[in-house]
Design brief:
Length: 263
């Protein structure tokens, strides 16, 4: 009897990380979790602050899971804060600290030409799924990526999240180091994704120590300005509505409001 061939470890690892098929109920619950993460990572304007009791009720009604537990921890803090404090904390956390920026391609490519190509590829992915990106917020802004994942489905919709797993890990580490309650929202998201590999963890440690790639000469990777780095972008006029219908939110929850360019 011939010896049994050794397993192909690369194929086994790929199979282990491949998204599993979900039942309709599981897909619906997952989409709601992603959508909650998307909404809770948006700037806490008056509409979002007013909806805080609805967020709390919705999270409390979720089936028990690591993601639901993390979102419950966040909404407990979120509901208890004054609106002005929420706005201040959000700006300090996401707008003034590059380590916790919500622009995912920055962690993978830094301010290089490759980042411009990655932004264009992401915008084309949205367009192929029925979203028209015509400027406005960058397509790699995490709330936008999360809403696309919720709308487009478990496999294709979540592909950008899986691609940028290392950046998400770095954001989570930065939020934890800063003691920000937003770490719970990132933890809820990461609990939905395949576990990080040893290579992922090593790359995150290197990113944390050295920062993303830099390119100082001849930069013009953002086309006509529609994909400029944070702080340099001037939004154009609002684009037409998206072609993809929005999810129906629980009663009282604000509908997702994509930044200009995905509306």
């Amino acid at each position: 009897m011939s010896p049994r061939p050794a397993p192909d470890r690369t194929r086994l690892r790929a199979a282990a990380r491949r998204p599993a098929r979900l039942t309709p109920e599981e897909a619906e619950e997952r989409a709601l979790l992603l959508r909650l993460c998307s909404l809770l990572l948006q700037y806490p304007d008056a509409e979002l602050a007013t909806a805080r009791p609805v967020f709390t009720t919705t999270v409390q009604a979720l089936p028990p899971s690591p993601s639901a537990g993390q979102l419950a921890a966040f909404t407990a803090w979120f509901t208890d804060q004054e609106p002005q404090e929420l706005e201040r904390h959000y700006v300090e956390t996401f707008d003034l600290r590059r380590r916790s920026s919500l622009y995912l391609t920055y962690y993978l490519h830094g301010d290089t030409r490759r980042r411009g190509m990655a932004l264009l590829a992401l915008a084309q992915r949205y367009r192929a799924a029925g979203w028209e990106s015509d400027g406005g917020e960058l397509p790699d802004h995490l709330p936008v990526v999360l809403e696309f994942a919720a709308l487009a489905g478990h496999r294709a919709g979540e592909a950008p999240l899986r691609q940028h797993r290392r950046g998400l890990e770095l954001i989570q580490h930065a939020l934890t180091d800063a003691g920000s309650p937003y770490r719970h929202v990132l933890a809820a998201l990461l609990a939905l994704l395949p576990p990080p590999t040893e290579a992922d963890l090593a790359a995150v440690a290197e990113l944390a120590a050295q920062g993303p790639p830099q390119e100082d000469v001849g930069l013009d990777p953002y086309g006509a300005g529609e994909f400029a780095p944070p702080g340099t972008f001037v939004p154009p006029h609002p684009a037409p509505p998206t072609l993809m219908p929005p999810l129906s939110p629980p009663e009282g929850m604000p509908s997702f409001s994509p930044p200009e360019g995905l509306r």
